[in-house]
Amino acid sequence: MSDRYDNGMKVRRRVLGDAYVDRAEAAKTEFDVPFQTLITEGAWGTVWASDGISDRERSMLTLALLAALGNFEEIPMHIRATARTGASKQDVLEAFQHVAIYAGVPRANQALKLAKQTYAEMEQE
């Protein structure tokens, strides 16, 4: 694998945690290896690895973009990542309030619902 892939795996583990990455890696098949490599090199090895902004800021941007575009499936994963990125509940609320104004209240409302559920689960763990 490439240096960008190796760095991407390190960043992915730092942000998402070893348990999550280990489960994702175990679920990887021959069919999706090229896609998983693309994500690891592109998202984690390039974008998340950049030192241009902090993990906290990147976490807030990611959550806002996921909500604004209606990609709700990944919101719980990235809410869980806030425990490692330093984005607070208040940060997440602020990000979703921006979504409400600039992308629509229904999307922000759904994102907040998922965030509340995920935070509740995290407190129970």
Number of strands: 0
Second rung of CATH, namely the architecture of the largest domain = Up-down Bundle
Work out the helicity level.
Answer: over 70%
Strand proportion, as a percent range, falls in under 5%
What separation lies between the terminal Cα atoms? Answer: 35 Å
Q: Can you tell me the number of structural domains?
A: 2
Judged by helices, strands and strand pairing, the structural class is mainly alpha
CATH superfamily assignment of the largest domain?
A: AhpD-like
* Major β-sheet profile: none
Number of helices: 7
Q: What's the CATH topology name of the largest domain? A: AhpD-like
Which spans of ≥5 residues are poorly predicted at pLDDT below 50? none
- The global form is globular
Q: Supply Rg.
A: 15 Å
Please give the CATH class of the largest domain: Mainly Alpha
The averaged pLDDT comes out at 97
Organism: Ruegeria sp. PrR005
Protein name: 4-carboxymuconolactone decarboxylase
InterPro entries: 4CMD/NDH-1_regulator, AhpD-like, CMD-like, Decarb_PcaC
Enzyme class: lyase
Question: How would you describe this protein?
Answer:
With 125 residues, this protein is mainly α. It has two domains: 1-50, no CATH class; 54-124, AhpD-like. It contains seven helices and no strands. The protein has helices at 3-16, 18-27, 33-47, 55-68, 75-85, 89-102, 105-124. It is globular and about 40 Å long. The mean pLDDT is 97.
